[in-house]
């Protein structure tokens, strides 16, 4: 990572310059705020993140196995004889565990343990912290240094391995691990160099495609030179010449210096050397033959041709071989330079590539989204367009020139997917995944990037997509319910109902009382055909929420609708709502749902039950406006389904009394003038009909038995919020489970005239 490549952290937490490898050249554009990054790294250092099983990197014979995130564990501690824990340890330990999402409480605990130099306390604190925040690579280094200073080299190595299982993209942690091995292994043993080389291969496979992986590659090259294997050093240089990195130009300069410092036979692969040697010798012979012919024409008569050396490779031949080697590598370098130029703008926009709990600003989030958009587009472009036009760039980053110590040549064309072996970088799936993993280092606490990664992986591998969900939900976003529910939906969509249930149950244990999770669990069981389980979940929620009347009413309505609509048991549904009304008599939604239940039944036996609902609502502590609406609904029901005119008139008289008691709204409630200035409504066939004029006050003995048409038109009920679930589900926590107004018949079924 960029932050990893600038400074090293010693065991005591102090920042010091890295001695493992120093870059000889720096690019022309200024670095991305390295001083600010170093300050934040000193407080709490972040690293990479875990990659799923990735395809093989180019020219790597053995790919390091990528561990399952669920297998991550901190190595067991070694018992020591230091006695009791420090005085304030338990207090700080409790503070961190009581609020595990408070990063400051953890750093206070770790700092205290370090100041006390107490190995047992430090082990406990580091193990617990890294389980919660495994992306902080600096603390893995501290843990390893702690064990090494205590004389437990095996434990120090084990800590590094565990850290790299958690964050294999951390260049800094790989270098720390390699330096640990170099300092502890007996290099006189034949197996030691093999092991070091194997670790280097694992490192460049896991993190070698990172834009800031230059130090790792340089360390590998220098180590091979120290082993005296110049051909192996050349092979590593050849590989890094194809990788777009920040210091790409320095690798080419080092290749030139390496080639000029040794005989070509010592540094080149045998096949390439013999091929170039034969080609250059043939070229030399042709040049000499042409030169000899010219000299023979000018030679005095009788003078013999001078003898030429045969069988020995001259310095001139070696120089020609070197020139041909550079001609080949220059093509690779030019192509790689073009790839660096495309990425430079995006890389320069990333100011914090390491993990931190502090939020990223919107500019940083947009930068990551733009970079991902471009990289995925390049992959799609190469798949659909095998022959791209020269100098055609995908996005704004192509206009930014890459740095170079010398004047840079013109931009190279983007390489085609089926290019020759000298090709620089293909836009393959592995490179896209590496960028996603880099993004999830800095953006590990943002659900949107995890979701986007899953969407990319799902068409290719369900297991890999599932592994990303597992990492996000079980390590980094344990208290973010949205992504857990997305995971459950993913599992249900792909037929794994057992795993979907497990995910939702685990989420409910982590976040108890969250209504949306309980509803999702009930919905899962209902869709699976287990109506009894769905009902049981809702009944349990009703029973557990009696101390919270509003939530209790919400669950009761849900349960009643399930029993009525799917269970076909209006009796049970009625009982649920009536019990809820005993707890919350002032809840208008409960009254309305009970009224809806009674109205939806057979009108002949339901008339009494409907009027009973209206009477109960009018006696409840509801607002005057709501009571008027209930009274209107009862009057309209009596008008539509009443058995005798006497029953209708009785209801009407009670309605008139209510209007007088509530005061001043009789005319508006009767005729709806205030709601419908044009005095028009919709009839059942959708046509516009005029509302009859008001009855003159001189006819007091002729009652108006027909309630105003706007009641069925939906205007009053919709504006008032009663009659459906609209206002209830407009609450933020229940916004995604809304229902349309059940009384609004015309609006939902008939088109406007």
Tell me what you see in this structure:
The protein has 753 residues and is an all-alpha fold. Among the domains are: 8-234, Alpha Horseshoe (Serine Threonine Protein Phosphatase 5, Tetratricopeptide repeat); 602-753, no CATH class. 60% of the residues lie in helices and 1% in strands. It contains 33 helices and 4 strands. It has helices at residues 34-43, 89-98, 103-116, 119-132, 137-149, 153-166, 171-184, 191-207, 214-226, 230-240, 248-261, 264-267, 270-298, 315-348, 362-384, 429-442, 447-457, 462-476, 481-493, 497-510, 515-527, 531-544, 549-565, 570-583, 588-599, 603-619, 624-641, 645-662, 666-671, 710-713, 715-720, 726-729, 745-749; strands at residues 8-9, 15-16, 680-682, 688-690. The strands form 2 sheets. A two-stranded antiparallel sheet has the order 1-2. The longest helix has 34 residues, at 315-348. The radius of gyration is 39 Å and the shape is elongated.
Summarize the structure.
With 753 residues, the chain is mainly alpha-helical. The chain contains 33 helices and four strands.
Comma- or semicolon-separated keywords:
753 residues; mainly alpha; Serine Threonine Protein Phosphatase 5, Tetratricopeptide repeat; two-stranded antiparallel ribbon; 33 helices; 4 strands; 60% helix; 1% strand; elongated; disordered N terminus; disordered C terminus
List the helices and strands and how they pair.
Elements: E1 8-9, E2 15-16, H1 34-43, H2 89-98, H3 103-116, H4 119-132, H5 137-149, H6 153-166, H7 171-184, H8 191-207, H9 214-226, H10 230-240, H11 248-261, H12 264-267, H13 270-298, H14 315-348, H15 362-384, H16 429-442, H17 447-457, H18 462-476, H19 481-493, H20 497-510, H21 515-527, H22 531-544, H23 549-565, H24 570-583, H25 588-599, H26 603-619, H27 624-641, H28 645-662, H29 666-671, E3 680-682, E4 688-690, H30 710-713, H31 715-720, H32 726-729, H33 745-749
Antiparallel strand pairs: 1-2, 3-4
Helix pairs in contact: 2-3, 3-4, 4-5, 5-6, 6-7, 7-8, 9-10, 10-11, 11-14, 13-14, 15-16, 17-18, 18-19, 19-20, 20-21, 21-22, 22-23, 23-24, 23-25, 24-25, 25-26, 26-27, 27-28
């Amino acid at each position: 990572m960029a932050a990893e490549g600038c400074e090293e952290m010693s065991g005591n937490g102090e920042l010091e310059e890295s001695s493992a490898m120093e870059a000889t050249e720096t690019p022309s554009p200024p670095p991305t705020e390295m001083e600010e990054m170093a300050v934040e790294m000193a407080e709490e250092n972040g690293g990479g993140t875990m990659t799923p099983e990735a395809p093989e990197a180019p020219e790597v014979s053995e790919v390091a196995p990528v561990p399952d995130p669920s297998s991550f564990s901190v190595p067991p501690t070694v018992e020591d004889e230091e006695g009791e824990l420090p005085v304030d340890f338990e207090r700080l330990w409790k503070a961190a565990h009581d609020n595990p999402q408070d990063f400051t409480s953890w750093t206070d605990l770790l700092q205290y343990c370090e100041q006390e130099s107490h190995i047992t306390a430090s082990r406990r604190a580091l193990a617990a912290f890294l389980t919660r925040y495994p992306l902080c690579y600096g603390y893995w280094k501290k843990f390893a240094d702690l064990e090494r200073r205590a004389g437990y080299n095996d434990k120090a190595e084990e800590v590094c391995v565990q850290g790299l299982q958690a964050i294999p993209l951390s260049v800094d942690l790989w270098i720390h691990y390699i330096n640990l091995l170099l300092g502890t292994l007996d290099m006189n043993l034949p197996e030691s160099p093999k092991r070091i080389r194997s670790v280097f291969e694992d490192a460049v496979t896991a993190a070698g495609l990172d834009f800031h992986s230059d130090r790792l590659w340089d360390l590998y090259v220098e180590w091979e030179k120290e082993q005296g294997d110049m051909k192996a050093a050349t092979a590593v240089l050849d590989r890094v010449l194809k990788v777009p990195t920040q210091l790409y130009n320095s690798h080419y300069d080092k290749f030139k210096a390496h080639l000029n410092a040794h005989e070509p036979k010592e540094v080149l692969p045998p096949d390439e050397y013999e091929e170039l040697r034969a080609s250059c010798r043939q070229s030399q012979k042709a040049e000499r033959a042409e030169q000899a012919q010219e000299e023979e024409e000018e030679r005095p008569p009788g003078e013999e041709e001078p003898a030429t050396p045969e069988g020995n490779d001259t310095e001139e031949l070696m120089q020609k071989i070197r020139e041909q080697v550079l001609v080949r590598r220059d093509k690779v370098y030019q192509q790689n330079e073009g790839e660096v130029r495309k990425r430079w703008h995006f890389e320069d926009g990333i100011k914090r590539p390491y993990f931190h709990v502090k939020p990223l600003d919107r500019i940083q989030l947009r930068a990551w989204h733009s970079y991902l958009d471009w990289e995925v587009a390049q992959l799609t472009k190469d798949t659909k367009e095998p022959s791209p036009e020269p100098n055609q760039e995908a996005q704004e980053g192509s206009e930014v020139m890459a740095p170079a110590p010398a004047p840079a040549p013109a931009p190279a064309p983007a390489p085609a997917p089926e290019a020759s072996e000298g090709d620089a970088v293909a836009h393959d799936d592995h490179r896209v995944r590496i960028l996603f993993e880099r993004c999830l280092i800095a953006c590990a606490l943002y659900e949107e990037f995890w979701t986007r990664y899953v969407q990319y992986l799902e068409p290719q591998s369900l297991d890999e997509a599932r592994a990303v969900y597992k990492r996000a939900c079980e390590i980094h976003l344990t208290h973010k319910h949205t992504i857990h529910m997305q995971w459950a939906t993913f599992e249900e969509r792909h037929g794994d109902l057992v795993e979907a249930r497990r995910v939702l149950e685990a989420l409910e244990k982590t976040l108890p009382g969250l209504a949306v999770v309980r509803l999702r669990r009930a919905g899962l069981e209902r869709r699976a055909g287990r109506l009894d389980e769905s009902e049981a979940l809702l009944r349990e929620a009703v029973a557990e929420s009696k101390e919270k009347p509003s939530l209790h009413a919400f669950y009761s309505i849900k349960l009643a609708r399930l029993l009525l609509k799917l269970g076909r048991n209006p009796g049970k549904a009625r009982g649920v709502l009536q019990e809820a009304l005993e707890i919350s008599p002032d809840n208008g939604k409960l009254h309305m749902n009970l009224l809806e239940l009674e109205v939806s039944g057979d009108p002949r036996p339901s008339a009494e039950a409907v009027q009973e609902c209206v009477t109960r609502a009018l006696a409840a502590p509801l607002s005057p406006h709501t009571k008027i609406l209930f009274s209107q609904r009862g009057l309209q029901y009596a008008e539509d389904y009443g058995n005798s005119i006497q029953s209708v008139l009785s209801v009407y008289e009670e309605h008139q009394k209510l209007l007088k008691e509530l005061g001043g709204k009789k005319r508006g409630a009767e005729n709806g003038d205030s709601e419908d200035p044009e005095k028009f409504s919709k009839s059942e066939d959708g046509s516009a009909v005029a509302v009859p004029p008001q009855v003159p006050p001189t006819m007091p003995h002729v009652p108006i038995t027909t309630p105003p048409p706007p009641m069925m038109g939906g205007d009053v009920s919709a504006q008032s919020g009663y009659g459906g679930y609209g206002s209830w589900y407009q609450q933020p926590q229940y916004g995604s489970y809304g229902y349309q107004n059940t009384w609004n018949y015309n609006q939902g079924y008939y088109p406007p005239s």
